[in-house]
Amino acid sequence: MKVTVAGAGYVGLVTSACLAEIGHQVTCIDIQKEKIDLLQSGRSPIHEPGLEPLLEKNLRNEQLHFTTNPHRAYSDADIIFIAVGTPETRDGSADLKYIHVVAHTIAHYIEQDVIVCTKSTVPVGTNELIQQIIDSRKPPNLQVEVVANPEFLREGAAILDFFHGDRIVIGTRHPEAAAFMEQFYLQLNIPIMKTDIRNAEMIKYAANAFLATKISFINEVANICEHVGANIEEVAYGIGQDKRIGHHFLKAGIGYGGSCFPKDTKALVQFGGNLKQRYELLEAAINVNKRQQSLPVKKAKETVGSLHGKKIALLGLAFKADTDDVRESAALTIVKELLEEGADVTAYDPIAIPNTRRIVGNAIGYTEDIRQALQDTDLAIIATDWDQIKHLPLEVYLTKMKNPIVIDGRNCYSLQSIGQYPITYLSVGRPGHPNANNMFE
Ligand SMILES: NC(=O)c1ccc[n+]([C@@H]2O[C@H](COP(=O)([O-])OP(=O)(O)OC[C@H]3O[C@@H](n4cnc5c(N)ncnc54)[C@H](O)[C@@H]3O)[C@@H](O)[C@H]2O)c1
Ligand SMILES: O=c1ccn([C@@H]2O[C@H](COP(=O)(O)OP(=O)(O)O[C@H]3O[C@H](CO)[C@@H](O)[C@H](O)[C@H]3O)[C@@H](O)[C@H]2O)c(=O)[nH]1
């Protein structure tokens, strides 16, 4: 089948590479020429495990093409996936400007009947708007059916999620389009849920809101654990054993980041606000997350006093391991706060330095050598649970740092192993925190 994917970002590239891999003829279009030039040379603009080999292979065997030419992309497509960005506007709502442009472009260039499938995360009602834009501008003899098909992939595990997702959601009012989509995805052998457009749109926001709330919930519990001398890892395991709760997404830390949870939770709150329907639980989850991202610097000040002139190693910049994405990363909040305190910061990350430098510039130092980052420092803050950090021999903190004080925002080390070294160690929701006390005393 001839498939076109609009947008060569995370979702667009993973969708393009995976659909080519299962035998479709895929054309991926983007408006950024540099991105398309890079992709045509077989290189990926993003770091995603397993993506580059799939891109290379399918480019070579001509299953996959990249273009900036809308006529080439849209005129003879059987199915078009929209995967353009829906970033956050100043008030937190989703900015639909890329969606509007792509809908206009599709209407202008199509030359045959086509299904248009929206993978971008869009507020309820947007797919109906896309349908209206296309219907009012397309050649009158052509039939276009817009389907909501939200994407649930995680960065760092995106290829795995494409082939082994928990479900595929297909939202359409049109039985033939639903049957077409079901057939299209059949070979993936993933449970398919067919529903209407608005339900599909809402499912995506509700899923992200639930997961973000689960993280803020466990972080709240972690903060209480710190003050009563309990251990959040034991507590999370204990509650997760209840099948109704489950073990996933109960890892306490310095909050969620990335391109989705922060943006989609704010969009849902804003969306509710427009309907005069406050979403108070989600507002609280967002506020808890904000506070959580500020915990490392707060703990640093409580431990060493003024940070002015202190030499600090920031270990990890990406919003989570296995990605070079720093969008809404807790590390960026930490950098901002450390700079406000007048600290001298050197950041380590195996792959996210270029993306960070684009935002932060040279206000901090950077290194891909973790030992160099720690050299002669007064304090280290861990912001990402990279394997390189988790597997660092703990002696390195003693041999490299001026003062071995480690504030671990991702609970990278077991208390047992860290306890064998004279390191001042503060993690999230585990004993050893100086504020710990016995509430029953
Ligand atoms: N990143 C994720 O893990 C993820 C997962 C699920 C859903 N989503 C959602 O998918 C959408 C895309 O996310 P992303 O992270 O891939 O975005 P992104 O910002 O990385 O990429 C979007 C791409 O679309 C391109 N684009 C903009 N207008 C275009 C047009 N008219 N024609 C062709 N290309 C155009 C941009 O140049 C950019 O390369 C968003 O709505 C996001 O919320 C993202
Ligand atoms: O127990 C946990 C799990 C995650 N996180 C943090 O939460 C953030 C998001 O992690 P994750 O969900 O793994 O990454 P994303 O790639 O942002 O994926 C989320 O956002 C995507 C975009 O909408 C969805 O498609 C995915 O289903 C959804 O998991 C990261 O900062 C993690 O460090 C925690 O702090 N504790």
UniProtKB/TrEMBL annotation:
Top-level division of the source organism's lineage: Bacteria
Catalytic residue list: 260
Pathway: Nucleotide-sugar biosynthesis; UDP-alpha-D-glucuronate biosynthesis; UDP-alpha-D-glucuronate from UDP-alpha-D-glucose: step 1/1
NCBIfam families named among the record's database cross-references: NDP-sugDHase
SMART domains: UDPG_MGDP_dh_C
UniProt record similarity statement: Belongs to the UDP-glucose/GDP-mannose dehydrogenase family.
Keywords: NAD, Oxidoreductase
NAD is among the record's keywords: yes
Sequence ranges assigned to domain UDP-glucose/GDP-mannose dehydrogenase C-terminal in this UniProt record: 313-415
Organism field: Neobacillus bataviensis LMG 21833
Amino-acid positions noted as binding NAD(+) in the UniProt annotation, renumbered to this chain: 30, 35, 86, 121, 155, 263, 327
EC assignment: 1.1.1.22
GO terms of molecular function: NAD binding; UDP-glucose 6-dehydrogenase activity
Pfam family membership, one: UDPG_MGDP_dh_N
Reaction catalysed by this enzyme: UDP-alpha-D-glucose + 2 NAD(+) + H2O = UDP-alpha-D-glucuronate + 2 NADH + 3 H(+)
Top enzyme category: oxidoreductase
Name of the protein in question: UDP-glucose 6-dehydrogenase
Gene Ontology BP term (one): polysaccharide biosynthetic process
PANTHER family per UniProt: UDP-GLUCOSE 6-DEHYDROGENASE TUAD (PTHR43750), UDP-GLUCOSE 6-DEHYDROGENASE YWQF (PTHR43750:SF4)
InterPro entries linked: 6-PGluconate_DH-like_C_sf, NAD(P)-bd_dom_sf, UDP-Glc/GDP-Man, UDP-Glc/GDP-Man_DH_C, UDP-Glc/GDP-Man_DH_C_sf, UDP-Glc/GDP-Man_DH_dimer, UDP-Glc/GDP-Man_DH_N, UDPglc_DH_bac
Binding, substrate: 152-155, 204, 249-253, 257, 320
KW Oxidoreductase (keyword) present: yes
